[in-house]
């Protein structure tokens, strides 16, 4: 069995960039200049911002039917629906607003590449 090769995996299942281009739009084969970590974090946040927002909005919309329940069912399931809705809103707030700021603060000095001795060939 062949070992996992991240380069061939990214070539096969890479981003939606054009043919012969890298993910940032540069021509393939040219050496890309290292980008500042704040730019990398900002680009990553912009890339996942819309999908995260709409995924959470769809889940919260699915819970709206629970808010219409009456009598015993409403008393039983409404607190759970409120809890899930607030937890999802908190997760969305964290992932869109707080996590990028923490990432830019934590990785301000850059990231050192480290090879794990257990998986290093």
Description:
The chain has 121 residues and is mostly helical. It has a domain at 34-105. Helix content is 58%, strand content 0%. The chain contains 3 helices and no strands. It has helices at 6-12, 37-63, 71-106. Helix 2 runs antiparallel to helix 3. The radius of gyration is 21 Å and the shape is elongated. The model is unreliable at 8-20 (pLDDT under 50).
Describe how the helices and strands are arranged.
Blueprint: H1 6-12, H2 37-63, H3 71-106
Distance from N terminus to C terminus (CA atoms, Å) equals 15 Å
Shape: elongated
- Element-by-element helix/strand order: HHH
Gyration radius (Cα, Å) is: 21 Å
Largest sheet: none
Estimated share of beta-strand residues: under 5%
Helical content (DSSP H or I, runs of 4+)? 55-70%
**Uncertain runs:** 8-20
Count of helical stretches: 3
Structural class: mainly alpha
Give the number of DSSP strands.
Answer: 0
Mean pLDDT: 76
Structure keywords:
single chain; 121 residues; mainly alpha; 3 helices; 0% strand
């Amino acid at each position: 069995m062949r070992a996992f090769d991240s380069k061939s995996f990214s070539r096969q299942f890479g981003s939606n960039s054009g043919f012969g281009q890298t993910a940032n739009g540069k021509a393939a084969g040219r050496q890309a200049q290292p980008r500042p970590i704040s730019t990398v974090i900002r680009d990553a946040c912009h890339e996942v911002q819309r999908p995260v927002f709409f995924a959470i909005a769809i889940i919260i919309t699915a819970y709206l039917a629970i808010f219409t329940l009456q009598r015993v069912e409403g008393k039983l399931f409404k607190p759970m629906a409120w809890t899930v809705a607030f937890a999802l809103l908190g997760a969305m707030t964290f992932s869109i607003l707080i996590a990028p700021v923490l990432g830019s603060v934590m990785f301000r000095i850059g990231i050192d590449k480290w090879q794990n001795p257990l998986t290093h060939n």
